[in-house]
Every structure is written in C-alpha cells, then in structure tokens.
# Entry
Amino acid sequence: MQFNIEFGPAYALAIAKLEQGDAVMAESGAMVTQDAHIRMETSASQGKGVGGFLKGLGRSLFLGESFFRNTFHADNGPGEVTFAPSLPGDIMLYDMTGSDLIIQQQSYLASGTGVEIETKWGGFKSFFSEGRMFWIRAFGNGPLALNAFGAIKEIEIDGSYIVDTGHIVAFEPSLTFTIRRVGSWFSTFFSSEGLVCRFEGKGKLFIQSRNPAEFGSLVGGKLPPRNK
Amino acid sequence: MPYEIKSSPDFAIIDYKLAAGESVVAESGAMVSMSSNIKMKTEARGGIFAAAKRKLLGGESIFQNTFTAEGGEGHVMLAPGSPGDIISFDLAEGKSLMIQSSAYVAATPDVKLDTKWGGVKGFFSGTGMFLLKATGPGTVFVASYGAIYPKNCEGEYIVDTDHIVAFEDTVNYSISKVGGIKSLFFGGEGLVAKFSGNGMVYAQTRSPGQLASFLHPYRPVKNSN
# Structure
C-alpha cells in the first residue's frame, strides 16, 4: 500500500494505492472515492469482537470521540481509495519504523495495516480534561497520513520549544513535555493565549498553521443556537 | 475561448469576455463584478414551471441572471459560494453532463438545464443529491469545495455523495450505503453513489456537510427555560 498526496497544500487528498491483498485503515468519514471492488469494514479501534465494539461505542457516545475506523480491503484485486479530512489544509506522510508517534486525534487520517493505533493514550489527559482534544498513540511499521488545518511545518527540536496546544499535529515521544500557561494568570485570561506545551529533548514536532478550535469559535459562535 | 479561469485552484473565478450582443447565464449570486455596459436580466429560464421544478428538485435558484454586452464588448467575473476550483466543460450538441445542483455556476445561453431526481435515498438522507442535467451545445462551468479529483470510471466506481461534483451521463449511478448497517451508524461513511459504465466522474476533495458537522459543536447552546 502506498500513499500519494495531491492537491496540497490547501485541499490535499490522500490517494491510497493498494496491491491485491493490501488494506488501508482510515478515520471514519474520510473516504472520498474508492474502486467498487474494495471492501470496507468498520471496527472499534480497541479490543476484538463484540466487547471491543461495545466498549468503543460507549466511549464514542459518552466522550464524543470517534472510535470507529474503517478498513478498506483489496481482496479482489489491486485498487484505489482516496481520503480527505473535514477541514481545508495539507496532508503529510510519516513513515513509522518501530518508534511511537503521538498524534492529536483530529490529525489522524489514514494508515497502513502495520501501524497500530492506541486511543487511550493518557499522557495529556489531566491537562485537557475540558477540551475537545484527544490524543492517540501510533506504533508499529508502515505509512501514516496526517492532516493539518492549514499548512504543516516540521520542527526539529533540540533543546526546548514552546507551541500552542491547538496547533500540535503530532510529535515524537522522545520529547518530554510540560503544559503551562504563557505569562501570568492575567495574560491567560485577557490575551487568549491559552495553554502551551513546552517540549524538551530531541525529536520532531509537527505543527499546523491554523487552530481548529479558534476557527470553530470564530464561525460557530455566529451560528444560531443549537439544542443541548 | 472567450473566458479564462483565474486564481485556480483555491479561489477560482471566471473572467468571461463578451463580444457586443453576446450573453452568458449564471446562477443568481455568482456575479462578482462586470463592465458597466453589461446588462443583467433576471429570468426564470425555460419558463416559470421548468424553473420551479428546478428549484424544488434541483435546489438551485429559481432565477438565473443573463449578462449581455450592449453597445460594445465587456466582461463579467463570476464566482461560486465556496472556496475551491472551477472547471469548464464544452458540450457538443445533445451531449450531457450531470451536475450536483449546488456545483453549477454558469453556462452559455444555448445550454439546456434540466432537473434529475437523485433517487428516494438521496432525498431522505439530506445529502442534497440533486442533479442538474446540462445539455449542449455550449459551455457549462462547475465549481467544487476544495480541489477537483477527476476519475475515469471504467466499470464501477464509488464516490461519497457529499463529494460528487459532476459526471458524464454515459455512466449510470445508484445510491447505496457502504459496509454493513454498523458502518452506516458508526462508520461515518454515509451514502455513496456507485457509478457504472464508462465515463468521467469528478469528485471534490472537501465536503460542505463535514465542515458543517465540524462547526456544529461550536454553536452557542440554547437556554432551556
């Protein structure tokens, strides 16, 4: 299975080419087009069988988190599936070679079947309990397609570096991090610079040039109220 | 060609040059700017009943604007509502293109527009799977949200209904869901169009529905008193 990225940076599309017998996994709802002989299967991301399915369902309903991923199988011959995220922006490829990658969940688009996804990575949990941000851990081997809101920039950290949490796409766990406010409580309240992540060590960080939550507030706040 | 598509692919706009007496027809609201000698006439094309049918079934505005250059040449700039690309299709006499109704932007005056029923499933799913059939001779302009992914369907091909821009009428389509019932409810993939036959199919790389779903949680919450 091989990914090609086209139409970047504004409205990128990931095109997965599958050999016979290959499969590709993707965030639910990401499929744009596919060859008709490709078979799609939905699974909860954790556990096997009904238990895992129900567990995934429960978490999905209660946490508002999408735990369902679709796997596209090329059982009946080679073929193609294309994927896109909900928001405008670029798609990048990351080659998993046995090390982990921590991904902001909305940035996960698709991956080869050799890449495993663990959805209950809790490294950030206590810091983001109120937010809509969830984090997943990818491990294993194979290609991984990540999407950004806006452009993607790779930052090679050696030492320490600070990034707004809403702009994080993914980072290598060789980096340690602490979450902190920027400035005083006064500036947290009035400057709308919220929580930042301070990374330490050596490793790659991928950031997106726009913050989905900022955009959501900007536009969503102007929409008529919804029912609870 | 009397027109040029500028600022493609992210914010495409049609710059249409009209010779004296020449016209172009556009979806209402598409006009961005024009020379001062261009006369705009608003009309229900094909008569009020054909227009009402288009409105009811096609989702496209009941009235269209015809722009005509008077007393000399001029130009009109036309753009769709969403960010993205525009492509033009030159249709020979009697040749047709099926267009997702909201993707239609403009056409030359001889192009005939008719509404096609997207099928019961499309109607009830709220996917806006309403189609316009544009028949030549002439040029029709179609816009996408995001980029346009062209695909030559040879046999069978599947496109998410929210990502359909247009397709040649040499392919047939049926609306169905992908995967099992579990996929429909939990898989996020809703309804898809399954194309069969040989012809070009055009998909857009972003979906207006998914943007709306993204924004929904950010809406203010109604007070329950």
